[in-house]
Design a protein that fits this description.
- The protein has about 325 residues and is of the alpha/beta class.
- About 40% of the residues lie in helices and about 20% in strands.
- The strands form 3 sheets. It has a 6-stranded parallel β-sheet with strand order 8-7-9-10-6-11, with helices on both faces. A 3-stranded antiparallel β-sheet has the order 1-3-2, covered by helices on one side.
- Helix 3 packs across helix 4.
- The longest helix has 21 residues.
- It is elongated.
- The termini are far apart.
Length: about 325
């Protein structure tokens, strides 16, 4: 069967083609390895020749790349590969709006705020050295915090990431769980591992763990440390005591940032113990460079029923 060739031109208006093509057309060379088509750059125009469906794929690819230029300035080879992988996997495009924020590029797609509340959360993280993200399950507060930290690491804004959680039981006692202390503690840290593994390749993550560039530790193990040039994340902060919260916050060293996440409706502390998160929000609310963001059921990005479940329980309290 003979395929009819199609020719299409892309004219780059208001954009330096070099920002997409790369130095010595390095980015174009990458694109050529993925598509059976001819790409000829001529000034501010790119001529694409090939089978109709392939030409259309390339045209769509360049539309997405053009939208990235205002933020990325000059696209790198990894940007090209990421967009191609997303397109071939059928995942959502890089941008749904031209000026939409992107937190992090990953091999599985891009991570970006998906609700107004998440966008506000991201903006607060960018403006402050310490951010408190409070909200119910499913609002992405932990996932987005990890993405912000990983992006800062990749951009060399920090040298390491420390993720921590208090090991407070939700109806179970540590002593009755099987295994040694590591076996008992790891289940509490699983959500942090899960988030990291979606954002960093397994090989790279192993290297980060081995070199202690990324650490996941129970909150108790943070005592006595001073962490410079690091991104600190405290998850499930509603289950900290006042002293534990103070201890965590005072671990911050020079050029460090922190995000504290928690859900006020899921406090597992003994009845007479006040949550360190509630206390911190009260006493730190007027300090500059400390920001607060409250997410609601409107920001839930899990199964649609989760929003209704959260709303039903909030009415029942």
């Amino acid at each position: 069967m003979i395929m009819t060739e199609t020719k299409r031109e892309i004219i780059f208006k208001g954009i330096d083609p070099l920002a997409i093509f790369g130095v010595n057309d390095e980015n174009l060379k990458i694109i050529r390895t993925h598509f059976n088509a001819t790409l000829i750059p001529r000034g501010n125009t790119l001529i694409i020749t090939g089978e109709f469906s392939v030409v259309e794929q390339i045209h769509h690819l360049f539309n997405e790349l053009i939208k990235l230029v205002p933020q990325k300035k000059h696209l790198k080879s990894k940007d090209i590969e990421t967009v191609i992988n997303i397109q071939s996997s059928g995942k959502e495009p890089i941008y749904s709006e031209p000026n939409e924020e992107i937190i992090l590029f990953t091999r599985n797609g891009v991570i970006k705020p998906r609700t107004k509340g998440q966008k506000k959360y991201y903006e607060i993280c960018q403006k402050n050295d310490i951010t408190f993200g409070i909200g119910p399950a499913g609002t992405g507060k932990t996932y987005q915090a990890v993405a912000v930290a990983v992006a800062a690491l990749k951009n060399r804004e920090v040298a390491k990431i420390i993720l921590s959680r208090p090991a407070v039981e939700a109806g179970e006692q540590l002593g009755f769980l099987p295994g040694d202390m590591r076996d008992k503690i790891d289940p509490y840290l699983t959500p942090l591992y899960d988030a990291l593994m979606e954002m960093i390749t397994p090989e790279k993550l192993k290297t980060y763990f081995d070199k202690k560039i990324v650490e996941i530790v129970p909150l108790a193990y943070m005592r006595g440390r001073t962490l410079d040039n690091a991104y600190l994340i405290l998850d499930e902060a509603q289950n900290t005591t006042k002293l534990q919260m103070k201890m965590f916050l005072t671990r911050m060293g020079v050029d460090s940032k922190a995000i504290i996440t928690g859900d006020m409706t899921q406090i597992d502390l003994p009845k007479k113990t006040r949550s360190g998160l509630i206390n911190a929000i009260k006493i730190l609310k007027n300090i500059k460079k400390i920001g607060f963001c409250e997410l609601t059921e409107l920001d839930v990005v899990r199964h649609p029923l989760v929003k209704k479940i959260i709303k039903a329980y909030s009415k029942d309290e």
